[in-house]
Amino acid sequence: QAQLVESGGGLVQAGGSLRLSCAASGRTFSIYAMHWFRQAPGKEREFVAAISRNGSSTNYADSVKGRFTISRDNAKNTVYLQMSSLKPEDTAVYYCAATLWGVRPASKDDYNYWGQGTQVTVSS
Q1: Contact 17/82 with Cβ under 8 angstroms?
Q2: Smallest Cα–Cα separation from 5: which of 23, 20, 31?
Q3: Are 43 and 56 in contact (CB under 8 A)?
């Protein structure tokens, strides 16, 4: 049973940057595409970014294109989300998830593992 643990969240001023990490346990990390989602208070969870198993393909929500970058290091069983030019509307709990599907967002049931989330707060 794999586990995903996010870290790197915190409080940052608008225009600032943060890098989130999602560390996976287990030896099968590289077979999963990895996705990042976020959920703001009172809103549904939304797709943020995804990266393919070998990192050759990525996908981003329009709201974060050009500001966020997803990457992974399979040797370290870790996926990253570099967030720049942060806006107050980026405030949310950020979750990573593993899926055997590709980089397109899937239904919640198509994800094999979810992390517990890390809070990102962007002040104006």
Answers
A1: yes
A2: 23
A3: no
- Work out whether the CA dihedral 56, 61, 64, 65 comes out positive or negative: positive
Nearest alpha carbon to residue 95 among 44, 58, 54: 44
Quick one: which of 19, 42, 16, 21 has its CA closest to 117? 21
Degrees, nearest 5: CA angle 36-42-48:
15
Structure confidence by residue, pLDDT tens digits, 1-43: 779 999 999 999 999 999 999 999 987 899 999 999 999 999 9
Q: What are phi and psi of 40, to 5 degrees?
A: -90, 155
